[in-house]
């Protein structure tokens, strides 16, 4: 018997996860609000059970629900995700100084893009796609850089929070050991 690591023949993923597991995985990876139908399709599960799982995730504070539009959408609670990521950074194998260096590196990259493209924000960079004379590859590159720029801005906020709240984010076991 061979070790299969891909989802061939339509089923390795399905054989190792339940529909609820797949909905939870899809929901936690959302980068923009999506409908229950979209999530159900991505999770390869039917609409009604998907909706029940999504409502439980909303009740648990994992997801947010927006009913203001024509369709109800779901998206991650970005505050909870940011807090969990800050705790992972604090609990990881990094020092506050190493994380501070990461912030500097990310800010340096953003400054380089600002200079290279004469843009002060990701949306200003996106607007340059309308410039005449750009090849399709250059347009795609600018869109990708704009997405990376936004990602780095979010990372700077989260890593900065982890550094700022370093002591507060200390695991209880470390606090107990330090007080003994």
TrEMBL record:
Pfam families: DUF7342. It comes from the Archaea. Keywords: Coiled coil. Residues 89-116 form a coiled coil. This is Uncharacterized protein.
């Amino acid at each position: 018997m061979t070790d299969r690591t891909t989802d061939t023949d339509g089923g390795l993923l399905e054989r190792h996860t339940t529909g609820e597991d797949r909905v939870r995985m899809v929901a936690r990876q959302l980068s923009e609000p999506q409908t229950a139908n979209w999530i159900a399709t991505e999770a390869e599960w039917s609409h009604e059970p998907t909706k029940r799982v999504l409502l439980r995730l909303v009740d648990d504070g994992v997801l947010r629900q927006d009913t203001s539009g024509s369709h109800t959408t779901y998206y991650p609670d970005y505050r909870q995700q940011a807090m969990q990521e800050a705790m992972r950074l604090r609990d990881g194998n990094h020092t506050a100084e190493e994380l501070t260096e990461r912030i500097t590196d990310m800010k340096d990259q953003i400054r380089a893009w600002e200079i290279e493209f004469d843009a002060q924000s990701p949306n200003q960079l996106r607007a340059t796609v309308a410039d005449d004379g750009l090849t399709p590859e250059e347009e795609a590159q600018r869109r990708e850089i704009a997405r990376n720029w936004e990602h780095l801005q979010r990372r700077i906020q989260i890593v900065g929070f982890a550094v700022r709240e370093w002591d507060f984010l200390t695991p209880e076991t470390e606090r107990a050991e330090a007080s003994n």
